[in-house]
Amino acid sequence: MVKKTDATMRDVARLAGVSVATVSAVINGTATVSAQRAQKVRAAAESLDYHADQIARSLKTGRSNVVGVVIPDITNAFYPEVISGAEEVASQAGYSLILCNANEDPRQEQRLLSTLFSHRVDGVLVACSDSSTAYDSLVRRRFPIVFFDRIPQGFRGSAVSTDNFSGGLEATRHLIGMRHTRIAIVAGRSTLSTHADRLEGFRKAMQEAGLPVRDESCRVGGLTIDSGYEFGLELLRLPEQPTAVFCTNNKMLLGFLRAARELGVACPERISVVGFDDYAWTENFHPQLTIVAQPTREIGRQAMTLLLTRLQALREGSRSHDNHVIVLQPELRVRQSTAGLL
Amino acid sequence: MVKKTDATMRDVARLAGVSVATVSAVINGTATVSAQRAQKVRAAAESLDYHADQIARSLKTGRSNVVGVVIPDITNAFYPEVISGAEEVASQAGYSLILCNANEDPRQEQRLLSTLFSHRVDGVLVACSDSSTAYDSLVRRRFPIVFFDRIPQGFRGSAVSTDNFSGGLEATRHLIGMRHTRIAIVAGRSTLSTHADRLEGFRKAMQEAGLPVRDESCRVGGLTIDSGYEFGLELLRLPEQPTAVFCTNNKMLLGFLRAARELGVACPERISVVGFDDYAWTENFHPQLTIVAQPTREIGRQAMTLLLTRLQALREGSRSHDNHVIVLQPELRVRQSTAGLL
DNA sequence: CTGTTAGCGCGTTCAT
DNA sequence: ATGAACGCGCTAACAG
User: Could you give the 3-state DSSP secondary structure of residue B326?
Assistant: First the structure.
């Protein structure tokens, strides 16, 4: 027996011989219903394969139980990892996730946010594609939004990220500690907080050590494997070839390594490399990578927790700080892609 | 000036001095509205930062412009890649994606599907966590569903996958062509079509060559890095150590490689390894992996296209085949993890 | 071409 | 404890 259309609350009510209000009460547990009637309702719902219509419910309640997640690049393994953490806590709390991939394009990101609002998501998590002022209005309107990983410049609101400055600092100090002096950096667009901060950490470490940061060994911009590759070629063809490099992004790191391979520059013998983000597969790399690891899933968990806490406060009318910033500590993992000089 | 609540269509109508029907017509382009009135409406909408309420619209139209995507494991890089393809075609068609991670757990998957229905998604894409009969009712009820990658046994409906049998066949033939005879296999749960088919391909190739498939060199079950590791330890400790192995899953492959490393079994000198799924980072592996590559993003694109085509047909009342099966061809990429015997 | 209006399915009063 | 009636914001059918 096939039903043409989904069962509605009325169908359930009819079958159970009660009113829709009773069905609603049973489903949501909002009122006390006599045990046997409740049982009847549940049986009816079951037999009709009834699924409460979230759409109708949302229209009525003003809440959708959906949160939007906007990321800049789903093929960057970092983000799926974060999402898995976010998804975990969201689904536990009965929330679903609408996932949007902005493709590193602020315009697309803007459109995505717009459709997210159309769908009346209760809140959003975003790792921005570029620093822009487009979020200001959201924050001013107090729309529940939590940034993670990449945070807009001058943003005043809730956010979760790694201490990227410290990550850059440690990575570079490690290189310096191995007696390197000609240290290059391959960094992503400086409009992104993550990369800007890591670059700052790099500069700080260099300055501490009294080392010069030459323009030609400081390649900033781009985010892709290809840009890492291009930068790599340039860097490794410099008359004064750097002996060490810090790549602030895992994709650019892959590109850089390809360049080194092509040019026959052995790592770590002729070039020490330290990167960002650790994955299950890095242990299979040759050489095994020295990297700065982020608590990736934890970023997702914390960001979602922050958002849900906020939503709950909103629901209960209680006051909540909407500018809670969580900074997680990264961890330098020294392996074999970095070696001492001399 | 901050608005407490979102602007509604009525607000726009009022501000523009027209009726709600006119606003609706302008927004959706469903009727001809005089140019100047349309202009006024657009201006009003703009100034009020109006976002049409998809929730209300859905309630009315019965369509949500959202499709659900259920995957078994978001931390398996294969799936985000597929999703990026699916997302690409969905967003072009004005659809959003609700992403659900089932964690390889059929029960969780069932729950996720249920909430997806509650949210009245127009259709779903699913790579199932286990073969079960739970989908039959969906298909019988003709709910728009397209399976990808992992397809339920005996499923009669739309699906997109790689020719896994052929993938397993080619991988094994390659090994055999290199004169290996003691060939082992590390495979995922045989209830999953992908792994079952790859295993079948393996058996076929072995049979073709008149090679025996010994029970002890045929490790089936599990999906994780850890299970690949365990199987690897067992296999490499066999009195008659295999000289080659086919891992049907990228995570198990990582585990196997770890086991080989720990046991000091050099690849490819003492063990040739061929895996499944290619990624940007495999070129950095040592040794570079011989693998069977799937057209990953294409799987996502095709699956979503199939689904959207179906939805359009449904909308237009035209007939559409709801059991279109697309099988994509894999590609063996020979690199350095496999070597000839003797 | 434009306005009026009846629901879509649900949660929520307000009666009983 | 339970039921009837209303309305959330929107679309579509109809009237003008």
Answer: strand
Classified by CATH at the fold level, domain B164-294 comes out as Rossmann fold (3.40.50)
Instruction: Decide: CB of A34 under 7 A of nucleic strand D.
Output: yes
Same fold, B4-52 and B65-162+296-331: no
B221 vs B73: CA distance, rounded Å: 16
B218-220 β-sheet, strand order: B218-220, B183-187, B244-247, B272-276, B290-293, B331-333
pTM for this prediction = 0.93
Question: What percentage of chain B has pLDDT greater than the value 70?
Answer: 98
Q: Say if residue A108's pLDDT is above 70.
A: yes
∠ CA(B100), CA(A87), CA(A307), 5° rounding? 135
Total residue length of chain A:
342
SS3 B139: helix
SS (H, E, C) A200-239: HHHHHHHHHCCCCCCHHHEEECCCCHHHHHHHHHHHHCCC
Cβ–Cβ under 8 Å, residues A271 and A260: yes
Nearest CA in chain B to A141: B2
Architecture field, domain B4-52: Orthogonal Bundle (1.10)
User: What mean pLDDT is predicted for residues A164-193?
Assistant: 97
How is chain B split into domains, by residue range? Answer: 4-52, 65-162+296-331, 164-294
CA dist A109 and A100 (Å) reads 8
Q: Which of A54, A80, A100 sits opposite B120 (nearest CB)?
A: A54
A91 near B CB under 8 A: yes
According to CATH, the topology of domain A65-162+296-331 is: Rossmann fold (3.40.50)
Q: Give me the residues of A, 54-83, that contact B with CB < 8 A.
A: 54-56, 58-59, 64, 66, 74-75, 77, 79-81, 83
pLDDT at B6: 80
* Shortest alpha-carbon distance between residue A84 and chain B (Å): 6
Q: In what helix (H) or strand (E) does residue B158 lie, and over which residues does it extend?
A: strand B158-162
Q: Please tell me what DSSP assigns to residue B285.
A: B
Structure confidence at residue B133 (pLDDT): 61
Average pLDDT over residues A43-72: 92
CA atom of A60 to C1′ atom of D7, Å: 8
Give dist(CA A243, CA A339) in Å, integer.
Answer: 10
**CB-proximal positions of chain C, under 7 Å:** 1-5, 7-13
C1' of C9 to CA of B38 (Å): 32
B87 chain-A contacts, CB cut-off 8 A: 74, 99-101
Query: What gap in Å lies between CA A320 and CA A308, rounded to an integer?
Result: 11
Residue B104 has phi, psi (to 5 degrees) of 60, 25
Whether A238 sits with its Cβ under 7 A from any strand D atom: the answer reads no
Instruction: Report which secondary-structure segment, H or E, holds B172.
Output: helix B164-177
- CB of B46 less than 8 A from some CB of A: no
Beta bridge partners of B219: B186
Label residue B284 by pLDDT band (50, 70, 90): confident
- Looking at residues B164-180, what average pLDDT do you find? 98
Nearest to B97 among A52, A80, A98 (CB): A98
The structure tokens 């009510």 sit at A13
